[in-house]
Structures
1.
Amino acid sequence: MSVTTHQLIQWKQQGRSIVALTAYDYAIAQLIDQAGVDIILVGDSLAMTVLGYDTTLPITLDEMLHHAKAVRRGVKQALIVVDLPFLTYQESPQQAMHSAGRALKETGAQAVKLEGGYPAMAATVSQLTSAGIPVMGHVGLTPQSVHQLGYKKQGKTAEAADRILAESIALQEAGAFAIVLEHIPADLAAQITQKLTIPTIGIGAGPHCDGQVLVTSDLLGLSEKQPPFAKAYANLRETITQAVTDYSLEVREGKFPE
Ligand code: KIV
Ligand code: NA
C-alpha cells in the first residue's frame, strides 16, 4: 500500500519524522523508494540539476510529466508529488486545474506542489482540493520567484515572518495536505510547525519541522553547486569521474576488454 496524505497527518500527530527526496528518473526513484523514503517529489529543480537550466523557470509541464512518468514506474511505496512549473498555475485557478489534472491523469502521481501563499494561491489550492487533487504548498524561499527574491533566506524580519506564517495558515485552510518550508529561520519554522495541523516539510528550515526534504543530486554529491543548507551523504561526482577515468585508461591501454 502506498503512503497516503492521511498517513502523513497521522505521522505528524505521532511525532514520526517524514522523509522526502526528489527524483527525476526510474532508476533513482526505484532505489530511494526501496530505501523507504515516504515522499518522492518530482521537483522542478529538475530544470537545474538534470536539464542544465540556470533557474527553474524555463521547464515546461510536458517536460515535468515526461520525468514524472518515469518516476512513477519505479515507485511502489512512496507518495509521489509533482511540481507544477512556473506559469502553469499562477494565471488562474482554471489553468491550475488543467495543469494539475494533467499531472495526475497522465503520470499516476498522487499530488501536486505549487509555490506561494495567500491570497491568490490559497484560492487556487481551495479549488484544486475541492476537485479531489491533493496539494502540497511551498512557502519561504520559492525558486520560481528568483528574480524577485534571489536565493537568500526569507522571513528574517518580523513582518516577513508574519507573512510566511499567514501564508501557511491560509494554505492549510485552503486544504493543502502539507507545506514545504524553504530557507527560513529555524524558530519561524518551529512556530509554523506548531501552529499547523498539517505536516511541514523543511529544507534549510532547521530541525523542528515535521519532515525534511533534500534535492537528491545534493544528497548524492552530484550537483555542480549546492545550497548552504544541503548535506552531501556521498560524493558521486568524484565516484563517476574516477570510474570514467579508469575505463578510459583501460581502453587506451588495451586492458579492457580482456
Ligand atoms: O524542486 C524541488 O526540488 C523542490 C524542493 C527543494 C522542495 O521544490
Ligand atoms: Na520545486
2.
Amino acid sequence: MTMSSEHLQILANKLRYTGKSKPRALITGINGQDGSYLAEWLLHKGYEVHGIVRRASTNNLERIRHILDKITLHEGEITDSIFVSYVIYTVSPLEIYNLAAQSHVHTSFSVPDYTFRVNTLGLLNILEAVRQMDYLPNARIYQASTSEMFGNAPAPQGIETPFDVQSPYAISKLASHELIKHYRNTYDMYTVSGILFNHESPRRGENFVTRKITKYFGKSINDRLKLGRLKLGNIQSERDWGFAPDYVQIMWKSLQDNESKDFVLGTEISISVKDFLGVVGKYMWSDWTTYVDIDDGEFVRPSDVHKLQAKSSYTVKTDVYDLVKIMLDYETDTCDGDGYDYYMENYGDIFAWRT
Ligand code: NAP
Ligand code: GDP
C-alpha cells in the first residue's frame, strides 16, 4: 500500500512535536558511558528518551539499570539500515544523538572493517533515514566525533587544526565527520559534529587506560599483590582527560542553537599516562613504579597519537585531578551500582541535575 501525500501529512502532524507533548530524543549507544549520562541529562530536561541497544545473550544494561523504567529501548544494530529507518520513522525524534561505536582505538587495528561498518555506515543509515523522511519534521543530529581525528597534528588542537589520522578508528570517525558536513551543506539538515577529547568516569569501559589504572589502584595492597603487576603499554602519550557528565551537557546544548556548527571540547590540560599514574599514586599513597610493568607487546599500538590537548570551544568544569579523585573514590568506596548516592553526597554540584 502506498501512502498519499495527504496521509503522510496527517501522520507527520500526529507525530510532530507540538510543544505540548514532551520533546523526543533517540540515543544510539544509550548503554555506553556517554549514552547513560546523556539519557539521565535528557530525562532531567523533560525529554521522552528512546535508545538503541544491541541484542546480547547476557544482561549488558548495567549502566542504565537505574533508569530502565523511564526510557524506551529498541533492540537492534545501527548497521542495519532497515531497522534504523524503522526506529526513526516510529519514534519520530526531534533530536538524534549518534553515540554507538566500536569506540576502542587499539581494537580498530584488528577489526578495521567492523569499525568502519559501525562508526561510518551506522551514521550514514541515520542521515539517509532522516533525509528520506523529509515529510516528517527533520530531526537534529549529533555525531560523536573524536580528538583522535587530530592525531599527531601539533597541540593544542582546535576547530581550525588540520586532521592527521593515525588509526582505523580515527579514519572511520573522520569519514563520519565529513558526512555530517555533507548533509548539512547539501540538504540543509541540522547536523553537528562534536569533536570531543577523552572523557572518562567510573562508567568508562575497563580496557581504557584511565579506568584500567584506577580500577587496579583502587584495590587494597593485598589484592594488588594477588593480581600481580599492572601491564601497560605506551605511558609517554599525553591526553586531555575530562569528566563525561560535563561533556554530555554540551552535546545537548549544541543541538539547541539557531544554526548548527561543529565544535571542539576538552579541558585544555594535557598530561601523560605516566603523570596520570603519578597523580593516582599520590592519592593512594603508593609508589606506582612498584606495581606497574611496561609491556612492549600486547598494549602497544601499530601507531599511536603522542599528544592531544584541546583548544576548546566551551569551558568544562572538572579537570583531570578531580577526575582521578572521582574515579578512585568510586573504586575504593563500598557504594552500590554506579555509586549514585555517593556521587550526590560528594560531588553534588556536578550531579545536581540528576536529582
Ligand atoms: P562506549 O562506552 O564504548 O559506548 C558505545 C556504545 O555503542 C555501547 O553501548 C555499544 O553497545 C554501542 N554499540 C556499539 N556497536 C553498536 C552497534 N553496531 N549497534 C548498536 N549499538 C552499538 O563509548 P563512549 O565512551 O560512551 O563514547 C560514546 C561515543 O563518543 C562513541 O561514538 C565514541 O567513539 C565517541 N567518543 C568518545 C570519547 C571518550 O573519550 N569517551 C571521545 C571522543 C569520542 P554495547 O554496550 O552493547 O557494547
Ligand atoms: P584513546 O586515547 O581513546 O586511545 O584512549 P585509551 O585509554 O585507550 O589510550 C590512551 C593512551 O594510553 C594511548 O596512547 C595508549 O597507547 C596508552 N596506553 C598505555 N597503556 C595502555 C593500556 O594498557 N591500555 C590502553 N587502552 N591504553 C594504554
